[in-house]
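Suppose you are handed a protein chain with no further information: no name, no annotation, nothing but its sequence. What can you learn? This example shows the usual starting point.
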Amino acid sequence: MFIDTHVHLNADQYEEDLQEVIDRALEAKVETMVVVGFDRKTIEKTMQLVEQYDFVYGVIGWHPVDAIDCRQEDLDWIEELAAHPKIVGIGETGLDYYWDKSPKDVQQALFRKQIHLAQKLNLPIIIHNRDATRDVVQILREENAASVGGVMHCFSGSVETAHECIAMNFMISLGGPVTFKNARMPKEVATEIPVEHLMIETDAPYLAPHPYRGKRNEPAFVPLVAEEIARLKGLTIEEIAQVTTTNAKKFFKIDN
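A reasonable first move is to predict its three-dimensional structure. Written in structure tokens, the prediction is:
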């Protein structure tokens, strides 16, 4: 059995065939899915999905690209919703210096606020990082994010950075890019980082693994991520499935 620890079933890309996507995931032995909501629309949809499906859990927060749109009332709303027993984390939050919609200082301020919120609620933090590794790690350290820990979602950094994050009580989550032929760093991380610190995800509908690269991703493809990690580590896919599922259930406190 597998857990997709980061999926956007709340995305418009699934509007026409969501149930079929979920059915394919279950057929592929993806027994649990953690749906991430990162703005008003996707958070509302996340709350609907966790109510509708026993095997769906939620993470809610505010995406750094849209940090400029976030108001205190949005954070208050997230705090209120996070009392739901099936909300298992705060995020995705972090920094994204690739897109320039939200200034860096605005992103950083919101990132710190969401770390504080996670600490207040005693929930782990799910981190989005794009082209901002140094600042992400520095802020996590300054704000003592280790007190609640979290996940480096769709990790694309170096082995050294992965070790820094693990030392701060963070899990390393790998997705479709680890299957890409030219993805040197994710493959190095998959090879070098002990499996006890790894989780797997799709980030669907984005970042579909090989051989579906460039197409719409879906949670049924998470075994392809596990298969590549197994190959790199010289383990069986069953071993990767078992350990990453155990890791995710323990991390998110999921007991089904």
